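Protein modeling request. Please complete all fields; requests missing the sequence field cannot be processed.
Requester role: graduate student
Desired output: 3D structure, token encoding
Chains: 1
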Amino acid sequence: MLQDLRYAVRSLLSRPLLTSVAVLSLALGIGVNTAIFSVFDRMVLRRLPVPAPEQIVLVTSPGRRPGSNSTSSAGGSDATFSYPLFQDLVQFRGTRLRLAAHRDFSANLAYRGQTSEGQGAIVSGQYFPVLGVTPALGRLLGPEDDRTPGGHPVVVLSYDYWNTRFGADASVLDDTLIVNGEPMTIVGVAPSGFTGNTLRDRPQVFVSLAMAAQAFRDPAWNGFTARNNHWLYVFGRLEPGVTRDQAQGLINVPFAALIRDVEYPALRSGMGDADRRQFQQRQIFLQDGARPRNSSRTQLQAILLLMWGVTAFVLAIACANVANLLLARATDRITEMSVRLSLGASTARLIRLLLVEASVLGVLGGAGALAVAAITLKGMLAIMPAEDTVTLSLGIDATILTFALVLGLGTSVLFGLFPAIHSVRTALISGLQMSSGRTTGSRTANRFRASMATAQIALATALLAVAGLFVVSLVNIARVELGIEPQGLVTFGLSPYLNGYTPERARALFERVESELRALPGVVSVTASTVPVLANSNWTNNVTVEGFQPGPEERTNASFARTSTDYFRTLGIPLLTGREFTAADSEGSQQVAVVNEAFARKFNLGSRAIGTRMALGAGDNKALDIEIVGLVRDAKYSEVRETAPSQFVMPYRQANAAGLSFYVRSRADTRPIVGMIPTLVGRIDANLPIANLRTMDDQIWDNTTRDRVLTILSSSFAVLALVLAAIGIYAVLAYGVAQRLREIGIRIALGARTMDIRRLVFSQVGRISLVGGVIGGGLALALGRLGRSMLFEVQAYDFSIIGGAVLVILAVVFAAGVVPARRASLVDPVTVLKAE
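Delivered output (836 residues):
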């Protein structure tokens, strides 16, 4: 093997151009696959860094949840529980399951006079024991820290936060960190590599569940007592030897009685017979929790699998190039193989020699792929959403290194096998009497080269079609009617409650900020909202509307926000009838609301919207204490891709607001306004962090980031595939012409014209293009169906786009055939026949 390896290296070095092209093709194909695998591994496959992660389960309970539901990136409403229900589940005996709970929260972290924005996790006393992690410093939170509400002001730092903020100083123990205005004692540091059990939430601090009210800083919060406030995520650890199905069966026995005897009596208000039956059939389901929680795991898997399919096509095209190059190299060495056979070498020995050469190419290609993967990852990180980039790192670890090298070896050996076998078989047949020039034009080799070229055309066509679908989808998103006027609009957020403000101080702060913003030069209007527009934030609430009787399965929920005056005028949403809020709509005055057209349609308001009364919450005995005073045109709410939901807004001055997103409309350039806002807020409170200061155009840009990522990646990979396919087609045609020089010389000697010779070459191009285009169109339909949920206002079977992709690849293929056809037509028959 060492002898074969040394010979393979010398042989490859003797053909630097062939070797360089093969290694570069493999590096590009393997590199982009490695990059996608790296993302897939970190975001989908990688398990929690805890002992025995296969014993971790996620607790869910699908079904109706009357009341409020608060979710995060950790999961949907099916995975949320109220605190009283969680406490009941913990008390169950004999379930062979230890339970814990957690919830993320926004955190303003102040240490020695410096405040920064961050993220925290509220965790129950069993959180760390159930996960089985040990501290890097000090201690972690335990059951003794989760007994008395508000009585355990202690905090654990994440390892990364301890390292970056505190310089990994061990003396930080027993020091004070102010979390959302609450002084807390630092008791420990979580282990290195542990960032919680959710994918996108990377908490800097861990706070006891008993301190939830202090962490949320919401004076109206009733999460400890209300069974209709669903906000906690629950998970557990199975006892050794217990399966998920066994534990699920055990816990559902007492859960059925709990739903019937406790939950239903507490939440029955507003339920009809159908709702009651559905509610009482609720069950606990235990899901695999070995990997971090992620509410969009299914969507993320679909996106990454689609991208992996795209890059697999790129790799297949690269491998087809390498296979053709190896075939050309092997068939040129038939005389050498014949000599070796005549000297006693076995066929297995020769095949091994040729496969060693292919393996060297694979290793070199895999090594080059690591550089390509690193570059691809950097490019992906530059265009990916910020919440996704925190889960990725640029380091090439052992898993990624192994993947690249195994893929390099596997593909090179797989696609080098046929050239090796073909070379040895031909040598056996021909012996020393047949020249290499004759044997390389064998029918089998020609069919193989044509098949590889056809496959390249088909794969490149499919990738171009998919890229075209995403380009059209992105164009449709850019043209969508938002219902607002983003130009000249600046937005930012303030959360004074997280700095310990009382409701009265927060209201005064909001009033002052609004007043000083209006005084800035160039400002036309100012408003604020509790829910940021087009920021993937969605608040909903059940409502009861005068004169509307919902059907048995009809939901009475609508999107909701509390806003300041001039909200619709500032955002550019037309008021159709009625009025906006005024300063008189304040605490103690008649509660009022403005609704949009979708709300009016959903609740059958028609022309009687103004003056209709409504109430927050669903039920027959609700006091209709809110008057609808305005009707506005529909506008996008949470995402650009979604249709405008039914929505109502109320004045924030009629209730306590924990935080507001401000909107400032400028009559000219927004850049000066963006620069003045930090100074303005710092003058009011230097320790109050500003969140998401940006123009509204930037906000919308961020809202459509995932669509741009898919478009950029699919287009980039399609262009790469097109280039590789063009190189492969050119190589096949050029090599075919070289092998047919004698035939072409004879044809010219017998009177063939230039056009006849060029037609001979282009007829081969036409055949493989026709077959490849048809196959590629079918592959494009399959890939389009896989990605149809990611498309916007374009069908996955859009034949105009697929047809356009076929035309593009045909143009490229025929362009690749121009030089070989011209070279064939310029053959001198006398020179060729003399050489023969």
